[in-house]
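Protein: Alpha/beta hydrolase
Species: Lentzea cavernae
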Amino acid sequence: MRFTSASTSADGTTSRDFVHDGVPGVLWTPPGEPAGLVLGAHGGGQHTRSPGVVARAHRCTAAGLAVVTLDAPGHGDRARTAQDDRFATEIRARITAGGDAGELVASYNALQASRAIPEWQSVLDALPDFGDRAGFWGMSMGAAIGIPLVAAEPRVHAAVFGLIGATNALVAAAASITVPVRFLLQWDDRLVARDAGLALFDAFATARKSLHANPGGHGDVPDHEIGGAAAFLAGQAAAG
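Structure follows.
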């Protein structure tokens, strides 16, 4: 892991940009010794320093946690492949025409997961100072990457998912997740059908899961849920 720059914000959070195996990312650390590490996966069309990603990272550092974020394949400072461009064009066209882009989005998310999971595992390998346990926080495309990652990665001990609906692949992965899960659902989400979100929540094998549903659309997750998710991850880190 090669660090390229560092800065400290007014709240004492230090952010260090890095490149690891060609993948750009940011490591966010609190002022004191971190109580744990969170893997923070961004949503579609975003990157490691999108406003929502930065806000979630600062909520975690305020709770004493370090956070590592990565640019997903085809996002941020990473080159887009012809396949990325084709999916983006087809999804935009379907939405503009008033059609259902759900199947296309699910196919792209599955591709993203296959590409991103080895990258997240490699980053975990590169951060041994934070121990062998981490939390995960990913919404929308970040959740589509995170669910199969958490299913496959024993070093993840708790997860926050949301804004994602059931597909055969995600249901199968969720059925093998036994760590504590906090799931966020927007009741009026036009991108994720309510029933699909509820079906995915139901599929998680863990008995230690909670559903947090709020009115509003895909991008309207209320602030108290962001704070609650950070507190949940901090509590799970403290619980060991």
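Remarks: Helices lie at 51-62, 82-96, 102-125, 141-152, 168-174, 194-203, 223-239.
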